[in-house]
Amino acid sequence: MDQAEPVRTPASWVVVGLDNGGTCNNATVLDATGQFLVDHLVENPSLVQDGPESAVEALAEAFQNILELTSTPLTLVRAVGLDTPGPASATGVISSKGSTNFNQVSWHGFDVRGALEARLGLPVIYNNDANAAALYAHHRHFGADAMRRSSIAAIVGTGMGGGVVESGRVVSGAAGMAGELGHVQIPMHGVLESDQPMPACNCGFEGDVESVASLTGIKNNLLPYWLSKFPDHPLAAEPIGRAAKLLRGYGEKEDPLALAVFGQQAKAIGKLFTIAANFTDPDAYLLGGGVVEAEPRFRQWFLNSVREATQLRQEQQAATSFALVADLDMAGARGAAVAALERVKTG
Q: Where are the transmembrane segments (predicted)?
């Protein structure tokens, strides 16, 4: 576990947030006044590849570690927020189809929320990881006004996740699959070049957002096309997977090939946000992922490009904002904690 210094010990009841990932769990504590008690990443191994029993025990260990780190008595904990990668139901049952992190048969249909609740003896509130990050991004952006505002967040990584927040709460949907923004199919007119093949997604869709705006989309679809236009580019000598990961560094140097790729990503996210503008008309459009960790001038260029590609009416332009998601490495655990705090406050 990282030895992060506690900000302070709790003066009131608290909730704990646990973010479960493919290699690590991240934990935080949020008190009843809305203050986080740690300001660093606090991790322990997640052990998800060892199966459900080991993974639930690792989550329990993360829970105990964060209480010790923040000098929080167990008696002050009212609830635990948990997030995991999907696909999973709204109540935390891992999909029978499994996923990248939960690929063992023993995970298929496993109720991870219920198992952790039984292990800890405390109520556990579940969200998927992208929804939890979106919820934290919303509350960080709006502060005290968060419960009166709405937002849509696009989190660009290996895939593309995100979430829809209305009145300060994540829209989870009937099956827990609302906010799967990466798999929204978008019009490709104005995104692709005239001779560019229709991009395909691992989910089986063609022309969804993730097929363009993700590291996987770069590797499978965008970079092979653009390397054919720039055959002498240094990345042409690299294996395609490594080239895709190196591309952001070229973007920061305003390399023409890299800007062509990231420009298409920005246009695709702009198309998504245009759909959102006509569907939920949110107060804010939030953008997170690897681009947030980039050099400031490049990430501002990317955010501006997304804004320019989002078609808003004049009234919407006056009422909305665009912003980058902060504290992304801690956003999952913090969002899970925010969800738990709201659940306790509303009974």
A: none
